[in-house]
Amino acid sequence: MSRPANMRAGESEAMWLGSGGKLAGQVREAATPHAAKLLVSADSLPLSNITSDINKFSNNVMAQQLFLTLSNQLPSPGRVGSFAASQRQIAAWWKKNLGNTAAPVLDNGSGLSRNERASAAALTRLLHHADASPQAAVFTQSLGIAGVDGTVARMRDRSPNSPAIGNALLKTGTLRDVSAIAGYATAANGQRWSIVAIINHPNAPAARPALDSLVEWVVRTKP
Fold first, then answer.
1. Is residue 49 domain-resident?
2. For residue 219, which of 177, 184, 186 has the smallest C-alpha distance?
3. 203 domain residue, yes or no
4. At what angle do helices 47-57 and 60-72 cross, to 10 degrees?
5. Within-domain flag for 1
6. Confidence (pTM)
7. Which of 11, 64, 93, 113 is deepest in the core (most CB within 10 A)?
8. Structural domains counted in the chain
9. Domain, as residue range, for 210
10. How far apart, in whole angstroms, are the C-alpha atoms of residue 57 and residue 110?
């Protein structure tokens, strides 16, 4: 059984057993023998599906694997992705497309690193760029619909009559001492706005209603 780049032997074993396969002997890591024959292969889901799963459900493992895949695609010996190489890929893309805005500091791409940094200004610029790109529809469809699905489905539980329900496309972010939200909201006048808010504080989780209120305020905007 061959494993994808950056997947440890234990992960390969777990996936194989979880899919109903059986193994004899011990799983170990080694180079694929030249005489090995490919028995079966399977393509991944389209990137649009993967992005949707990552954003709607905050799948940190998938986010990290996608981050590593950025450098795994480079024409290099072994085609093995790495955090450092993916960081360079993102930095080069940012400089080319958003060069006049300070770039986020990325670490492992999972969204769980304490070493990562991003400003509200950088995220807002990125949202504007995404909204103007040919892939805008794919990106926006990957975001959770306020009060309907994804990590923002619970907005309906907190405020059943909120005007934001169904009128905002959002991604939340939560760590110890951190609460954040980013995405788009459609105002009463039909105009779409980018929204980014980041709270760094020991009581950050308590600010979730305040973030909901921010989205509601934008949605209520009149012409």
1. no
2. 186
3. yes
4. 140
5. yes
6. 0.81
7. 64
8. 2
9. 143-223
10. 13
